[in-house]
Amino acid sequence: MDNSTCQVYEDEIQSLEEEIKLLAEKYEDSQQESTFFSEEEILMSMYAFFSPVGEYQGESKKHESPSDLKAQLESLERDLSFLMKFTAIQFTSHSKETVKKTRNSTVQKHRLLGNCQALSFQLEFQLLEMQNKEKVSAVITDLSIIMEYGEDLDVRKFVSSAEEHGNLLTFFRSLSSFAEWYEHRRLTFLYFK
């Protein structure tokens, strides 16, 4: 190989290293932006998405005006839009079935389909909501995550851990980060092919 060809390759490598550095800085900036939202704000937005319209604020108003319902719907749509922009996760399908309902608790079975950049996922879980006086608490049980991740053992371990602990928030945060870097790797390998 002559020196000019070698120089071209070295310049290209240098350019890619700079691009990786810029992407890493951009990633760090986005991670710092995510710390502006408290875990409670994120959980409340998720709870708003999974709960029926009247249960979001712990109230069950039976006679609401159409303008109130429209305002609540717009608020929920803003929350969903916020979550999708914040995490890059798009929900393509959601189904919910009430399994058991008592005076103070409700068990609902949820099924979510979606994708995060190039990765698709399917979640099935039960949401146990318990109401004590004015406080509503929710617990996720029987979490099942179906995801194509090939031979990546780290992702397999992560999915198993998320299923075991029933921690959706950690799953979505990690999925968003993993999908971003997965896409960067995919584009880099395509570039070299």
Automatic annotation (TrEMBL):
Species assigned in the record: Brachypteracias leptosomus
Annotated keywords: Coiled coil
GO biological process, one term: CENP-A containing chromatin assembly
Protein name: CENPP protein
Chain segments annotated as coiled-coil in the UniProt record: 6-33
Domain of life per record: Eukaryota
GO cellular component: chromosome, centromeric region; nucleus
A family per Pfam: CENP-P
